[in-house]
Amino acid sequence: MNLLTTLSNSLMEGFFPKGWDLAKIDGLAEVSGVELHAKKGWWNPNFNPVSCQNLADFDVFMGHEIALEISNARKNGRDLAMILPVGPMGMYRWAVYFLSQWNVDCSHVHGFNMDEWSDAEGNTLPSDNSGAFQFAMEKAFYGPLGQLTVPKNQRNFALKNNLPSYGEKIKALKTKGAKLVTVFGIGRVCHIAFWEPHFASEFDSVEQWKLQTHRLGAKLHPLTIEQNALTSFKSRTTLVPAFANTIGPGLFLQSDSIIGGCDGTFGRGMQWQGLSLRMSLLHEPTPWIPSSFMPTLPGKLFYLSELAEPLIADCN
Question: Is 243 helix (H, G, I), strand (E, B) or coil?
Fold first, then answer.
């Protein structure tokens, strides 16, 4: 017996996104190793998954990719709009290292944090709160860049009074020739930023879903809350906000290039991101699996090789 045979339909529909075909998803879980790299018909010709042997490599590779985009834009005399996550985070240390070594002035960069914790009305934590994504970005990226850093008026955070302006700001930058790069992680239920799969039920078509640029006070899926309890709140579920401000597909699907990362392992053979990785790479694009659209864009998805190992039961 397994989840497919023991849970009633009503329970599955009340917990998992109703657009998920669990039998199909379970079939995707059977794929492992290099088979994950087999290109699908909907993949962009310039999209590639990149396996990383360990977390140290993962952080360096992603940091180098971010720094390279910033450096190339500088060399080409172009502004660069970057949608940036808080998670993964280790790559920012290396992005700072490479940019500092290359002496790249980042005054041409416009940063757009993709999300922020909020209440149901979109009100966020103060910027000096250690749990705020703005605090994390200043500490991990903007601050350590020192004199080379992104100007303060070009750092955008997903606040109630600023997130709604992202679309117009990015549009204006792209009109002037700027490139848009989205850096992202993939959630347990395959969200991008905090754009959750259950939002799909609100739209009559994929086209309508694709137009959504943002949401204030987005209601998070229970598995998203538990994922963050484990990865960011030392298991203290009661501290995790149930809402967040987030960008939507109307922004991240405009990307000229993407830099993705999956590093969801816990050691001792435990992980949380192996199935999410497979759903993102192997499932046809659907609003019920937001991350399934990312392979349709040019760029790279870095992942820990452990996540590609067979997904079989292993009591720890």
Answer: strand
Q: Is residue 41 part of a domain?
A: no
109-113 vs 80-84, strand pairing mode: parallel
116 contacts: CB under 8 Å, gap ≥ 6: 124, 125, 132, 133, 134, 157, 158, 159, 163, 244, 245
- pLDDT tens track, the chain, 316 positions: 444 444 445 455 578 999 999 999 999 999 999 999 999 999 999 999 999 999 999 999 999 999 999 999 999 999 999 999 998 999 999 999 999 999 999 999 999 999 999 999 999 999 899 889 999 999 999 999 999 999 999 999 999 999 999 999 999 999 999 999 999 999 999 999 999 999 999 999 999 999 999 999 999 999 999 999 999 999 999 999 999 999 999 999 999 999 999 999 998 889 999 999 999 999 999 999 999 999 999 999 999 999 999 998 877 6
**Cβ neighbours around 128 below 10 Å, total:** 9
| Residue 28 resides in a domain | no
In this structure, what token pair is assigned to residue 221?
Answer: 């899926």
Q: Quote the domain boundaries for residue 228.
A: 47-268+282-308
- How many whole angstroms separate alpha carbon 111 and alpha carbon 131? 19
CATH number, domain of 78, equals: 3.40.50.1360
Q: How far apart are CA 104 and CA 100, in angstroms?
A: 7
Q: How many domains does the chain have?
A: 1
Between CA 69 and CA 90 the distance in angstroms is 17
Tell me how long the chain is: 316
Q: Which amino acid is at 18?
A: K
Q: For residues 131 and 230, is the Cβ–Cβ distance under 8 A? A: no
**Domain membership flag for residue 71:** yes
Residue 296 CA to residue 44 CA, distance in Å, equals 5
Residue 109 lies in a domain: yes
pTM of the model: 0.95
270 forms beta bridges with 267
Distance CA 272, CA 99 (A): 32
Nearest Cα neighbor of 285 from 40, 17, 85 is 40
